[in-house]
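In this section we turn from sequence analysis to structure. A common task in structural bioinformatics is to predict how a protein folds when a small molecule is present, because the ligand can shape the pocket around it. The inputs are simple: the amino acid sequence and a SMILES string for the ligand, here S-adenosylmethionine. Study the lines below before reading on.
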Amino acid sequence: MEVTADGSPVEVYLLLPPDGEAEIVHAAVSPGASILELGCGAGRVTHPLVDLGHEVVAVDDSPSMLAHVRAESVCARIGDLELGRTFDAVLLASHLVNTPRVADRRAMLAAAKRHLRPDGRLIVQWHPPGWFDSAASGQGGLLGEVTIELADVVREGDLLSATVQYAARGQRWHQEFTCRRLSLDDLLTSADFRLHTWLTADHTWFSGAPGRMG
Ligand SMILES: C[S@@+](CC[C@H](N)C(=O)[O-])C[C@H]1O[C@@H](n2cnc3c(N)ncnc32)[C@H](O)[C@@H]1O
């Protein structure tokens, strides 16, 4: 079984269908906007974005994931990315900004900033602060044919560790993770971004614009 450096099981990401992520992004940017997608996995969100008319450059540090991506792709650590070009939007989904490592978060946001046009949009999916209070073992559901369940939730200060258990086609996978509770201010201001707008009512998606609040 192939697993990425962050513990994502490749087979699971091939079985998981899109869940409306591309439509959220599409509604937040101009028609035909160029998009740099950071942490694209196997292209679950990339492919519907391309179908919606976007030119997408998809970045991941897992060759096993990128082998399935049908778009221009780059194998790199997000924080190290230096493409020398800018995009109308940079997508940082899958709660990557909630990484427990502050230096990694800063490096990801700096990479997003240097690849974004001055009038571009940073599009983020994160765990908002309230999720850290409500997350509990046993939560989950069905996405496509994959049953997803959260287990072993442990809190320690601003950190929450848990295991995601996946089951499909008689197989089981699991992914352990630790994530960090952040305020929106911690996330954006330190990286020289400001909130542009919330993209979903549950505040799990938002767009940012370069520069601090004036
Ligand atoms: C949970 S998967 C989600 C994939 C995709 N965004 C989706 O929703 O289907 C996270 C992906 O981000 C990649 N990733 C995590 N941290 C990364 C980093 N620092 N640099 C490059 N890729 C990273 C992993 O290899 C994995 O493919």
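Residues 10-128+182-210 form a domain with the Rossmann fold fold (CATH 3.40.50.150). As an exercise, try to locate the residues that line the S-adenosylmethionine site and compare them with your own expectations.
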